[in-house]
Amino acid sequence: QVQLVESGGGLVQAGGSLRLSCEASGRTFISYVLGWFRQAPGKEREFVAAISWNGGNTQYADSVKGRFTISRDNAKKMVSLQMNSLKPEDTAVYYCAADASSPVYVFKRSDEYDYWGQGTQVTVSS
What we know:
Helix content is 0%, strand content 47%. It is an all-beta fold. The strands form two sheets. Strands 2, 4, 5, 6, 9, 10 and 11 form a seven-stranded mixed beta sheet that branches. It has a four-stranded antiparallel beta sheet with strand order 1-3-8-7, with no helix packed on it. It is globular.
């Protein structure tokens, strides 16, 4: 069993930056692919970014490429999402997720992920 707890959300002006963090429990953290998803009001949950067990494989949604960076620290059991050049359309609840099926293959579908955090709100004002 894995528990994920996100932090770092908040209110920021367009063009600003935020760093989200997700702390995990569980001894097999290193074997999970970790991802970030987001859900805006009235919209479906969408993929943002994901990272393989050693950081060698990262994937990003086209809408955040070049602005967001995902990273992980296996010793601290933590995954982070650095968000720069934020836009109002980035406003959403951001969720951390873990995929226990493979440490290497990075999937973008939410149904591939087994564990989820409770989410943290990110609001970008124009």
